[in-house]
Predict the structure.
Amino acid sequence: MSTVIDTRNGISLKVWMGIALCGVVLAILPFALGAVGQSWVRTLNFALLYVMLALGLNIVVGFAGLLDLGYIAFYAVGAYIWAMLASPHFGLHLPFWVVLPAGVLLAAIFGALLGAPTLKLRGDYLAIVTLGFGEIVRIFMNNLDAPINITNGPQGINRVDSFSVAGFAFGRSQELFGFRVTGPEKYYYLLLLLTIIIVVMCVRLQNSRIGRAWEAVREDEVAAKAMGINTRNIKLLAFSMGASFGGVAGAMFASMQGFVSPESFSLTESILVLCMVVLGGMGNIPGVILGAVLLSVFPELLRALVIPLQRTVFGDVILDPEGIRMLLFGFALVLVMIFRPAGLWPSAVRRRELSGAKGGQS
Amino acid sequence: MEILLQQLINGVTVGSVYALVALGYTMVYGIIGLINFAHGDVVMVGAMVATTLVVAMIGADPGGVSAWFAVISALLLAIPVCMVLGWVAERYAYRPLRRAPRLAALITAIGVSIIIQNVAMMVWGRNYLSFPHIIEPLVFQVGGARISLLQILIIVSATAIMAGLLMVVHRTRLGTAMRATAQNREVAGLMGVNINTVISAAFLIGSALAAVAGVMVTTYYGVAQYTMGFMLGLKAFTAAVLGGIGNLGGAMLGGLLLGIIESLGAGYIGDLTNGVFGSNYQDVFSFIVLIMVLVFRPSGLLGERVGDRA
């Protein structure tokens, strides 16, 4: 206790040490996991993608309190823009500094497009409209191969360019400083950088004028309006901002996978991201990150464990491993929510609301 | 003109099924404010149980079992199974969360849905089960359009069930208690209504309707599979919202309308857009209609204006 040195800035030495430790762990993580198997590095990369998605959705659901069940549409927009502008499909191979901003911008426009007709809707009506929007985007992607082939339909677009900066390609393995660095490991650092940028943006947004306006709209829209907040613009901003993060994640997904198809952007994915946000702790950035990492790594962990575990217990694979895996996932969702209804790591405000006397809202 | 009539007949048939499922959504929503994502999967279980029983009966004695006996026993088995399922889900998954934030309950419902689907997959496998064609393929001609005996049966029995439900809700003590609980749970409790019984009853009735809908779907389309509940549930939820969620009449109207919109969309999108968009856009069409309706009536067609804190 006595080692904590409180500085005027409010950030103690202990916190700095913690950040430094996290940095070191995050920096060597892909190599440690790469020793176990490259597939774990890919899982890690997907976890980072989901962290970006969950943070984006957290702006809409957690900060502004707008239930969005079609969030994956923005991920799809980002991914498809990358795939269309940097693949042999149209013969375009534009560099990342054109494609990435284009994806982000278009995702943000789609966000506003979704927000506009839903401004008057509340709660569950909003949920179904966003869900419909997500489905509409997916159906279009699935069917826009005729009369003009834009998205190549259900086959999807393949041989998508990977991310490369000035000849440094992130897709291939190569020797760097005497180390052999694989494609997924390189992508890990790229994704980590983007994730950190998004986390910093989220933290700064939360405590900004805009963040407080979102919170006000979430708590009471009428009162927020009375306090001079332009609720229309602030809600549209939440949709666009959340969507743009989804767009970044989507573009990264397309470049990393080298392949996009409508299958990756089903409603189930939207629901999965929502589960991450709520399970982790809506509105609390560390909680959301925790939720995203847990829910993206947990199924993979189960995938690796279920078959050997059955072999040792029953001597053979009796139960369908995929079924068992999803079954446990379902039970985990139910149990976490029953025992921690505010999420695993709720924000201080929500914790206070739930533990204290519930005023006003029934 | 014949095409229009034909699409209307098909639409009303599918719409009656949507309406039955939508009623389950809307009753639960009206009383505890939960979007029960697992409701579609209850329909699926009903369809699977019915199909399994009918296949077993026909297999045991081909030709000896009358079609009506098979379908009615399938219903009599599917209804209690679904009711137990709905009751268990409410008792052990949703009840502990009654005072929790609403999104927590929503995530729980998603979890329950995943559990039901995967248990069903383990029990019945991934393949489609086909429902034997036991009901006479009797077809009547109505003004150039065709309506099958099965379609008439589905429409008539769905209408009868909905009328019965309205009677229960508006004429019986249980119905009064349900409406009171929907208005204000705390005050209803103070007036001597047993809230837990009422909520359980809503789940039991909703699940029974879901079982009937499941039997209808599997006899109509001839197949059942463990993922079928998802899309069906989604459509029914859309129907409930279209009509105004929490409103029984709204769910019925929404279900019928959605069925009709879908089949008209499937029949006419191609003509309307000169063949640019085909019938594979029928879901887009339904969702766009839904969004348009909600833009002008933010609480559905028959929904009351929701309060600001709803």
